[in-house]
């Protein structure tokens, strides 16, 4: 069982993992370099542990100690108990959910490793909004996608906002980062995947016409909010696909479009 320690100094160095959580650029640099990520909220902390991520420490307000008692009892990590006002001083925001944990990152697998047993894969290009990353992972998990591949410039799925929006689904779907773009898509195609580029372009085939659920192995490629897929990514795809729109709407945001497309890709797929 981890030691429960009351802390009353916001400058206590033991709270270093939790400092300046609202400074996005700082945390983007710090967290991968220091090998950590932050899980926020009871469900997310539990899911991170269940997924096998090691715990470095917990930061709890007093009332959450009993709620998280079973998690505390299973871990050797220290538990720092603080008043809500002190937690706000340390993190930079009001911690509504009352429970934070600093978790240990694991090395990312190679793309070929996550593709080996997959049949339905998400590929993201330049998706830098953490809310969109989290929403896409949550839909991918819920709708039966097998893995996620990220272009080199995609945002970190383990950033606190991404993890929170996904409700811990980032722990459920294997993911890897391609080292080169779009050249890295050749790895996907060489393993038998048909790369479908999701675009609102009128020249694209509708998802119904393409019938991706009947294809053996599919990699569905999504672009960033607003800009969509780059010309280089579109050129590297095997087929362009689109979601038909009505009432003069030209497109959906990438999170909503992803969920619709994932259903089209996985509908009728035998459960394994």
TrEMBL record:
It holds the Pfam family SpoU_methylase. Residues 121-263 form the tRNA/rRNA methyltransferase SpoU type domain. The keyword Methyltransferase applies. GO terms for biological process: methylation. Keywords: Methyltransferase, Transferase. Gene3D superfamilies: 3.30.1330.30, 3.40.1280.10. GO terms for molecular function: methyltransferase activity. The keyword Transferase applies. InterPro entries: Alpha/beta_knot_MTases, Ribosomal_eL30-like_sf, rRNA_Methyltransferase, SpoU_MeTrfase, tRNA_m1G_MTases_N. It comes from the Bacteria. PANTHER family: RRNA METHYLASE, RRNA METHYLTRANSFERASE 3. This is rRNA methyltransferase. The lineage of its organism: Bacteria, Bacillati, Actinomycetota, Actinomycetes, Kitasatosporales.
């Amino acid at each position: 069982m981890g030691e429960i320690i009351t802390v009353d100094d916001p400058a206590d160095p033991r709270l270093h993992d939790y400092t300046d959580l609202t400074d996005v650029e700082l945390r983007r640099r710090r967290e991968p370099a220091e090998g950590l990520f932050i899980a926020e909220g009871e469900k997310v902390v539990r899911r991170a542990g269940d997924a096998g991520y090691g715990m470095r420490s917990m930061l709890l307000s007093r009332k959450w100690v009993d709620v998280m008692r079973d998690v505390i009892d299973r871990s050797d990590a220290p538990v720092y108990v603080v008043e809500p006002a002190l937690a706000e001083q340390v993190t930079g925001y009001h911690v509504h959910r009352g429970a934070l944990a600093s978790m240990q990152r694991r090395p990312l697998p190679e793309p070929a490793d996550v593709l080996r047993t997959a049949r339905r894969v998400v590929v993201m290009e330049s998706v830098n909004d953490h809310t969109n990353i989290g929403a896409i992972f949550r839909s991918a998990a819920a709708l039966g996608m097998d893995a996620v591949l990220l272009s080199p410039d995609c945002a970190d799925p383990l950033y606190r906002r991404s993890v929170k929006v996904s409700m811990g689904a980032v722990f459920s779907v294997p993911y890897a980062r391609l080292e080169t773009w779009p050249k890295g898509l050749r790895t996907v195609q060489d393993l038998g995947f048909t790369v479908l580029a999701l675009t609102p372009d009128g020249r694209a085939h509708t998802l119904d016409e393409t019938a991706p659920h009947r294809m053996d192995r599919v990699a569905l490629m999504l672009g960033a909010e607003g800009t969509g897929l780059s010309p280089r990514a579109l050129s590297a795809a095997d087929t362009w696909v689109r979601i038909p729109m009505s009432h003069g709407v030209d497109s959906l945001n990438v999170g909503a479009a992803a969920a619709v497309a994932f259903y089209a890709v996985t509908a009728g797929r035998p459960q394994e």
